[in-house]
Amino acid sequence: MLGEGIIKGMAETARNFLGSYTSDERLTTVQYPEERLAPKEAARNFPFLVYDGPDWEKGLRCVACQICEKECPPKCIYIVKDPAKKPDYVGKLQFQPKVFDIDTSVCMSCQICVEVCPFDAIKMDIEYELSTPDRFGELLLNKQALSKPNEYYRKIHPTEAAEVDARFAAEKAKMEAKAKAEAEAKAAASPRAPAPKPEPRQAPAPELAKAT
């Protein structure tokens, strides 16, 4: 039938139009700021740095590789690498950023920094209430202001965080198994100490003939 597709399209448009006034799921207008809609899991705003363990400075996953700084289109990331390795939250010596700043007044929330990070150290936040009268002071976030625990990441992006944690756990188990196998191979290849030779037994002394 000629025009059947147009009629179906207009009917769908009319259904959506009327539903936006009658359906509870479609009534999206809220009285902000008294009422707030919970952000979706896939929502994203400005980046933040993830850290593990209780200490934000030692637990930073960032190793100051500066890939995100180089790939950032608006060039709002500024990193200074600490030349000395420092122990992380598990005691492993690791490079860390001495300075890590993000100018959120320039950031376009493109998520390229997240996609290029090989260490899952930077992720996108869902915080959007960042308005301030001090544009050049409050919107320039330093390393401490950007750092948030892995528990926060699990809370706002549970599906994505679970995948990252599972991958980290698998890599850790693989490294531990490899280290164990190397240790066992090294122990098997090392020469064993020769067994001590038994001391020669001495012949008993001859008995003297008794005087008759």
Textual characterization of the structure:
The protein is built from seven helices and eight strands. It has 212 residues and is an alpha+beta fold. The protein has a domain at 47-148: Alpha-Beta Plaits. The strands form three sheets. The protein has a three-stranded mixed beta sheet. Strands 2-5-7 form a three-stranded antiparallel beta sheet. The termini are far apart.
Q: Any idea what the shape is?
A: elongated
Radius of gyration from CA coordinates: 33 Å
Structural class: alpha+beta
Report the CATH topology name of the domain at 47-148.
Alpha-Beta Plaits
Give the terminus-to-terminus CA distance: 146 Å
Q: What is the helix fraction of residues, given as a range?
A: 25-40%
CATH architecture of the domain at 47-148: 2-Layer Sandwich
CATH class of the domain at 47-148: Alpha Beta
What does the secondary structure layout of this molecule look like, with pairings?
Elements: H1 4-22, E1 47-51, H2 67-71, E2 77-81, E3 86-87, E4 93-94, E5 97-103, H3 112-116, E6 122-124, H4 135-138, E7 140-141, H5 143-146, E8 147-149, H6 150-156, H7 158-189
Parallel strand pairs: 1-8
Antiparallel strand pairs: 1-6, 2-5, 3-4, 5-7
